[in-house]
Structures are given as C-alpha cells and as structure tokens.
Amino acid sequence: MRSLILATLIAASPSAAWANHCATRPNLEALVAPWNKADKIFLDGRTDITYYFEMKPRSYQVVYGDYTGKITSLSPVEEIRSDPFYPDERKLGIELIKATDRLIALDFHEVNRPKDADLVIIGYCNKNDHKEGAITQNKDGTQYFMILNGCGAIATGAMSPIWLFTHEFGHALGLEHPFDGADGDCLFDDRPRSAEAAHAGQTVMAYKPSPGGPPHFFTEYDIWVLRKIWGSE
Predict the structure, then answer these.
(1) Which phi-psi region, left, alpha or beta, contains residue 157 (left: φ > 0; alpha: ψ -120 to 50)?
(2) For 232, phi and psi rounded to 5 degrees?
(3) 213 exposed, middle or buried (CB, 10 Å; 0-12, 13-18, 19+)?
(4) DSSP E strands, 41-180
C-alpha cells in the first residue's frame, strides 16, 4: 500500500463509476503512480539512490503523504519499532534491488547508516495492522521509509517475501496498484480481488494472487513501465 489516505480514497470511490474507466489491456497510465512526479522532484535529477536495511531495533516516526506524495500538517503520523531483518532476508532484498538496478537507469548503493540513506527499509511486526507494508516519509520529506510487516500475510503464507518486497519497492519507484482509480485510470477492474482484476502474474502491484504461484521478480509489464519512467540501464 502507498498510504492510508490513498487506501481511503479508493475505498470511497464508487466502484461502478471507476470500473467504466479501466483499461482493457496493460498500458502506461494504469501503473504510473500520481506520486511519481514527487519522486522525481525528490531526486532532483540524481540517478544514484542510497538505501539502508535496518538490522537493529530502532524507532522511526513515519509520515504518510497523500496520493500525490505531498506531506501536510494533517498527514497521518505513525511510530514504527523495527523488527530487525535476518541476514538472509537482507540478502534477498539486496539481490532484488541489484536485479532492478541492472534493468533501469537508476543506480542503488547500500550505506551503513540510516541517516545517509534516501530509502530506509524497515521490518516491523503487527498482526493487527491492516497493511502489509507501505512507502512513507520522514516529516521533512527528505527521506523515504519502506516498511514491511513480517507478521501479516507473509506469516500466514498468503503472500511471499519476494512479492511483498517487489510490491513495496515498486511503489518507491513510482508504480501504483492496477486497480487504483483515484487518479482516473485503472487496469481491468477497480475491485482488487474480483474475477476480472489484474493478478500478481501480470503485475506485482496487484493484490490478487497469480494462478501460477507467487512472482519471483517484477513482471515484464512492471519492467516496461519502470523503464518508461526511469529509462533503461
């Protein structure tokens, strides 16, 4: 999920009204997020992005921007206590980031301190949290936080670690859910788990599982859109 506000906007949108606007085949607009412009402003022309995996217990104050990425005085704020990643979890995340690096014109570099990172990747555990993860920011909008709930669908086996990581990483790179209609476009259907909705085999940004099993990386459609946004390596 991108943010609590975006989820609320989607829930409040009349399903039938948006469904009429859904594209019948994959296109660029259906997967490019409205906060992509804010992401590019954040980078200000840079192509080098630093990231950090939180391997210690630490508290973070995260702020949820609106569906365009903007932070205001009314933006929801949450205190997150990190549940440190295991070494093999960090290794998997780094492998997925490096695989993405080889495909698009952004270059990712791991740093040793959270304060030096553009993107801090944080694991946490909350069985009662309605979200599996999110891309959030600090209060100044100068740093992004990718939070991953290890006690949600992963713990029950309903979602794979790779699917969760690529889904949230996709949000960080400017991809939206295919069913999101808040910006006036969607793919197939605006109901996330309907029979017509996109599934994870078509895009990792979907909520509906793929009939062929969980994804092992971004799909061809995801990569095509990411290259349209950022360029090829």
Answers:
(1) left
(2) -85, 155
(3) exposed
(4) 48-53, 59-63, 77-81, 107-110, 119-124, 133-137, 144-149
pLDDT for the residue 20: 60
Number of domains in the chain: 1
Both tokens of 222, joined, read 């995801």
175 neighbors 31 (Cβ within 8 angstroms): yes
CB 92 within 8 A of CB 52: no
Burial level of 121, CB count in 10 A (0-12/13-18/19+)?
A: buried
The residues of the chain scoring below 70 in pLDDT are 1-20
Domain interval for residue 116? 4-230
Q: How many other CB atoms are there within 10 angstroms of residue 55's CB atom?
A: 14
Rounded distance between C-alpha atoms, residue 230 and residue 1, angstroms: 21
CATH number of the domain enclosing 209: 3.40.390.10
pTM of the model as a whole: 0.89
Q: Measure the CA–CA gap between 35 and 150, rounded to whole angstroms.
A: 25
